Amino acid sequence: MKFKNKELFKSISAKTHARRVSGIHVIICPFCDNGHHIPTDFDSIHRCTCGACFKVCGTDMLEIGVGDIAGTLWNEEELGLVRSVPVDFCNIVIEKDFDRLLDLKHASPDPCGIERFCKYDVGINLSLVWVKRLF
To answer: What pTM, to 2 d.p., does this model score?
Structure first.
């Protein structure tokens, strides 16, 4: 009887462990290495605990995406100064292969069901944009 219980526990833990490992897909902040869930709302700007912000946008809309994030990091007065002075006020990291991460998430088995990501235009490649203030 003990052998059967042990075997049952082993098979259950192996199955749940496999689900946990294969079901984990996160994005990592390039500034502090914190993990974040993949955003399902591509119009929102998301914030890391280190102060960096990130957003998903089309590759052809990167400048607008960075501008949207800048609008949340600085007030209007500061933003005017940032745009007028040729000094680096922030670090920007762009992950241009974000569609591949979404494809991995779609392919992974998830017992609770998987979120589906919809793009307005299927032909647009998505990028993940990170912006962090330097000071």
So the answer is: 0.69
Taking every pair of Cα atoms in the chain, the longest distance, rounded to a whole number of angstroms, is 76
- What is the per-residue pLDDT for 72? 93
For 8-66, the pLDDT digits (tens) are 334 333 444 433 334 456 889 999 999 998 887 888 999 999 999 999 988 888 999 99
Cα separation, 61 vs 56, whole angstroms: 10
Pairing of strands 53-58, 90-95: unpaired
CA distance 76 to 50: 22
Quote the CA–CA distance of 53 and 69 in Å, as a whole number: 7
SS3 of residue 37 by DSSP? strand
How would you label 25-34 residue by residue, b for 16+ Cβ within 10 Å and e otherwise?
bebebbeeee
Closest Cα partner for 90 from 66, 109, 119?
66
Q: In what helix (H) or strand (E) does residue 132 lie, and over which residues does it extend? A: strand 126-133
Per DSSP (E only), the strands in the chain are 26-28, 35-37, 46-47, 53-58, 90-95, 126-133
Rounded Cα–Cα distance for residues 126 and 59 (Å) = 5
